[in-house]
Amino acid sequence: LNRRLAEFGTTIFAEMSALALRTGSINLGQGFPDTDGPEEIREAAVRALRDGRGNQYPPGPGVPELRAAVVDHQRRRYGLTFDPDTEVLVTAGATEAIAAALLGLLEPGDEVVALEPYYDSYAACIAMAGGTRVPVTLRPSEGSGEGGGDRRFRLDLDELRDAVTDRTRLLLINTPHNPTGTVLTRQELTAIAELAVERDLLVVTDEVYEHLVFDDAEHLPLASFPGMRERTVTIGSAGKTFSFTGWKVGWVTAAPALVAAVRSAKQYLTYVASGPFQYAVAEALSLPDSYFEEFRADMRAKRELLAGGLEQAGFKVFRPAGTYFITTDIRPLGESDGFAFCRSLPERCGVVAIPNAVFYDHREHGAPFVRFAFCKRTEVLADAAARLKSLT
Ligand code: PMP
Ligand code: GLN
Questions:
Q1: What class has domain 3-37+290-389?
Q2: N or C end: fewer C-beta atoms under 10 angstroms in the chain?
Q3: 2.40.330.10, 3.40.640.10, 3.30.70.20, 3.30.1130.10: CATH of 39-285
Q4: What sequence ranges are listed for the domain Aminotransferase class I/classII large (predicted)?
């Protein structure tokens, strides 16, 4: 293994899912739903397969139907307009979009400012591209609400400013944010946009959880802020929005020169992927608003169920404004090492979770935090909550 990758080892998701299987535990670690997406969209995939659409290499930028559906979705929801021929690229999930964006845009030695904790592929892909990561740590804050109502992880705008140097090439943003569940506010995004314009930076923004926002939170795409349309690479995915994480259909929207750069890398990674599924996802993106509303309401109820269970079990809960993850602080349980806690949890109560420390360069900042996924059936979450309660 080369030096660039040596520090990364096996992804925590593979490790923890294997642990769940081995111990017969409830897997609230890796974020994938235990119920597949809509029947009619599965049927659309079957039809595409049967009718011979996408069984051979699809076009490099993605099938026209899907590119049109992505454009329509961005216009309908956010009022953003893109040219389906030059400003959209279909990828093998958001994972490939992240890799191709970094490989296509970074020069060796370029610095990438990213919000810490960060999704684990960011660090590895920055390393593969020869870049240097510069983490800006999101800080836990209690907020002013009753009972931890607006407790969240916050972006310190001064720290963000201070992280930018003459070597900074791009900002790597993620909202709604995995693993903290933070949805960046209009004020935070405005500051990011102003900084990007002032320092002439590119922004890669991972918005795969765009449809998973709760209560008063609103997902605002960075590309919609002043000066950002031309400098922002936006990444989306069907895995999270439609509960088909195995299909690996993602996409990039950006100005033509940026899409061309991402495509240059992408064509030598997979070239193309997921032919028939691209047609099905085109139909999924065109589902009526009611689909998205019901999905969100369903996930909100699941969030409440698991958050309540975790609170009763004694965890301090950061109720997420977005994503399907709950970050908790384990210190009220008399624990302080999330790694040790997660390794012992299957034996102690038959539940698997993810130690947030893996998403930090400054591991000490992440040590007491543990992430639980709630994209699971109600009875599974209820069972997990009961098991966790037996901890105390
Ligand atoms: N970005 C974030 C923040 C994620 O949580 C994930 C995985 N769930 C991905 C990207 C990867 O998405 P995909 O499965 O579409 O590759
Ligand atoms: N994104 C999912 C998570 O955060 C897992 C994806 C993966 O296994 N790489 O849990």
A1: alpha beta
A2: N
A3: 3.40.640.10
A4: 26-385
